[in-house]
Amino acid sequence: MSMGRNTTRMPLRAVLISAACLLSVFTALGAPAPARGASAPTQPLYVVTDLGTGTGAESWASAINAAGDIVGTTGGWAKPLAFLYTGGVLRELLDLHLPYPSYLPYEISAAYGINDRGQVLVQGWSGYAIYNDGTTVLLPGNLTAHAINNDGEVVGSLSGYGGDASHVALYRDGAVADLGLAGYGAAINGLGDIVGSLWRTGTQGIVSHAFLRSRDGAVLDLGSLVGPAGWSFAEGVNDAGVVVGQSEAAGARNAFRVAPGGVMEDLGNFGGDNGNYSEAFAINEAGEIVGQATCDSGDRPLHATLWKDGEMWDLNDVIAPDSGWSLEAAHDVNDAGSIVGWGWTGGHRHAVLLTPTVVDSIYEFSGFAPPIDSIPTVNAVQAGATIPVRFGLGGDRGTDIFAPGYPLSQPTCVAASAPVDPVETTATGSSGLTYSAATGLYTYAWKTDPAWAGTQRQLVLGLADGTYYRATFAFR
Predict the structure, then answer these.
(1) pLDDT of residue 149
(2) pLDDT tens per residue, range 166-186
């Protein structure tokens, strides 16, 4: 999250754990729907920047600060290396000078967080450290570090309490404090509030519960979406005290949000046969939440996800449709709305930066008109039907309004809670575009494929001015 206040380690931890298996390296660580035919809600749009992979074949981005500096890990499973991306250049941190056994041919490392002072939280062979502009400060050896805030405070856990037990720990002013809570700390905000997971005894044994510990020491058990017996864990918190993470839900594992004084809110999932998982990693001060979720559409099950203004977005649907990317995870977001994570391109996983953008439009798109509903509503229709897609552009703009290759349709993920409305009116014939001076609307007759039955797809109108407009359909 912004200013390095919230940095979780979920998939990146697996990089070093897998490296441990290969090299005997690390110890495993433990909003209402719009009216029919109304203008579409503001749809986010992002430009994708490939951060590269350094000397390796893959990379992951874990955190971004207010200045847009990004940290993560390159190199794949066998030789992970921490990186810092700043000024448009990815630099692997080869000057960490972390101790490692002489029988290893090289140092390995990973970076998990960065604050606005440029302090980077890194992990090496022997443990964790704070790196800043060539200087490395080793953290105590029994500390598993998870996040760093702008004051340089590090939250994590202390081991050595028997078996797999650990205690929430805070590193501050050169010393580690055991906070006396069985569990681990996952994130810390600018005020010193800590979130993570506490071990609780439930009807089925030990379960984890998300918690919030304020700087004054007060601890709040956040429970779960299915009550005290269920599990949950917190992964992010902003300065307003809004907590996000993942919880057991009815037949699912869903992302959650908890506002101060509120109850745990289920952020939902994409539904379908494989869409019963979502997870929130980070939240910024504007309340934008990023994470990932599973979905039936696309070549890969995991999709980078954004929760914004009450809507759940597959980030693959808010980048250029012809980008060639399959975005897998959104791991952090700063207060400018810039998102970092990773995705697949050319058969390899690459760290990415998603920058919010606004395209200057020439046309005055008025939204979709009946019988089509705008996002977030899902239009239910018979596969094989010809659908009259009506929209306005502020008058007659001629017939060369579409960009080359558009309109197009593609598989999409739809929030399971999205409203559904049947399309009552269909047309006949093949696809084509007409304009009516009487109504001031264009009609694109969209001939659908009978083979789409049982799927969800998105129709993308790519216009000649560089803008994109989408409507979602469920085919029966």
Answers:
(1) 98
(2) 999 999 999 999 999 999 999
All domains in the chain, ordered by first residue: 2-356 (2.130.10.150), 368-475 (2.60.40)
225-229 long-range contacts (CB < 8 A, ≥24 apart) are: 225/249, 225/250, 225/254, 225/256, 225/264, 225/266, 226/250, 228/200, 228/202, 229/202, 229/203, 229/204
Taking only the tens place, the pLDDT of each residue in 434-474 is 999 999 999 999 999 999 999 999 999 999 998 999 999 99
Total-model pTM: 0.88
Contacts of 245 (CB under 8 A, 6+ apart): 186, 195, 210, 232, 233, 234, 235, 236, 255, 256, 279, 280
Q: How many CA atoms lie within 13 A of 150 on its CB side?
A: 12
Query: Based on the number of CB atoms within 10 Å of its own CB, is 83 exposed (0-12), middle (13-18) or buried (19 or more)?
Result: buried
- Buried/exposed code over 434-473 (b: 16+ C-beta within 10 A; e: otherwise): ebeeeeebbbbbbebeeebeebbbbbbbbbeeebbbbbbb
Beta strand pairing call for 408-411 and 456-462 = antiparallel
Q: Name the least confident of 12-16, 327-331, 349-353.
A: 12-16
**Beta pairing partners, 387:** 446
